[in-house]
Amino acid sequence: MTLSILIWLPLAISLLASQLPRAVVGRFCAVGSLVTLGIAISFLARFKLGHAGLQFVTDTVWIGALGIHYKLGLDGLNVALVILTCLVFSCSLIWASLREWERPRSFYFHFGLAQSAVLGAFCAQDLALFVAFFDLMLIPFYFLVGIWGSGERVRATTKLVVYTLIGSFFMLAAAIATGVLASDQHGTNLTFVLSSLQGLPLSHASQEWIFLCFAAAFLVKMPLVPFHGWLADGYKSMPIPAVAAFSAVLSKVAAYGFLRIVIPLFPYAATHFQTLMLLISLPSILWATSLAFTTPDARLVVAYSSVAQLGFITLGIFSLRPEGGQGALLQMVNHGLVTAPAFFIVAALAARAGGSEKLRDMGGIGFRAPVLAALFLIVAFAWLAMPGSSNFIGEFMILLGVFKAKLAIAAVAFVGVVGAAVYALRLFIGSMHNRVGPSVASREIGIADAAAIVPLVGVILVLAFYPQFGLRRSEPSLKAAIASAQVQSTTRTASR
What we know:
Layout: H1 3-17, H2 22-45, E1 55-63, E2 68-74, H3 79-97, H4 104-123, H5 127-136, H6 139-148, H7 153-186, H8 194-198, H9 204-221, H10 231-237, H11 240-265, H12 267-272, H13 274-292, H14 298-317, H15 322-351, H16 370-383, H17 390-405, H18 407-432, H19 447-465, H20 468-495
Antiparallel strand pairs: 1-2
Helix pairs in contact: 1-2, 1-4, 2-3, 2-4, 3-4, 3-11, 3-15, 3-19, 4-5, 4-6, 4-11, 5-7, 6-7, 7-9, 7-10, 9-11, 10-14, 11-14, 11-15, 11-20, 13-14, 13-18, 14-15, 14-17, 14-18, 15-16, 15-17, 15-19, 15-20, 16-18, 16-19, 17-18
């Protein structure tokens, strides 16, 4: 079985579903997503530990004249993220399938296209192929926001298009320049295969401006300050299953791009701009944390917390230390597992508060909905990185790596850890306890919500007891990815 089956199956299922009666489209896609998840688990079961190289490789010349290959593969950098993608999309589709949607065939087609594109971006081992999948995965979300969104959806779609198109332009220019300059500087045939480009290092000057182009594209996508202008409108307008998948998975593709592309191909630039990237991450953590514990909107609490967590992930990546990098990879998975059920829980709370997502309209649900409260409490404890949770291990390793790289930045970043406890507990206490809201209908969690929330909470508990599951698989590949940057960093430190 090849990775192509895993990547293209969601799209094929959605196309097949478009020929079925409206009443069964959603459930057919939900069942199909479970099949995709099963295939992903089969790759995980056959994944060999202790290997830094690619496994399950597919390598076919796609556009020979341009040196572009259709090359796919799994290693420690992406195997857990592929499983996360399939799990989150399955839960999102299950949640959606138990509700009514206008134009369901088109709705589920865009979901299938989005999942295929995200899986392709994670598995791509050719720079041009990665860029193609990266741009493709944004297209369905333009429609999901513009057609099925709520509130100021036109403004949200416009901002999302403008920001991401600008970022994509920078990335496309940087990708083309990487292949062309590498072939010119080394006198070889044009290629975009990542493993080949690693053996064709660019000059320091070329690395610097190409690094900045890729960084702009990835920072817009995550997003971090000051590239976050689309965030509030976009997250507020997306339908719940779309925003759960977007926040939990799509934002990780950008962070993954730093580890897969930027640091291995441009190690000098990664070291040169290390402090800049850390200084971008730090205000993102502080800004997002401050908004998360002041905003009156429950959905935006989750949205801003995502920015703070992505700031921590970027800190870990650009610590350029094995501890920080492994913590960042673990935290990518942890964040996806926490933020997706958090959005589903916000939707469940809003349904019990007359449709309002304002915290002031919630409250007093916990005693009459103990199962929902218990599930939310598990998510909240993981969210605030309670000792004993996998999130605690991830944040600890990130801060350890940053502590060894830049002590002052690590010290300030601890404020974000404290802030996470404030906004997580504020959302939990404000919605589950205090006085009963004026329009609150207290009732227990139903099947339509539990079907999406319970599996994600279950995986949170599993990783809390066994975080080594992800760490053992990522360690060899992570060390190989940052090896060149570590050498550059050591040389730079020694020369001072």
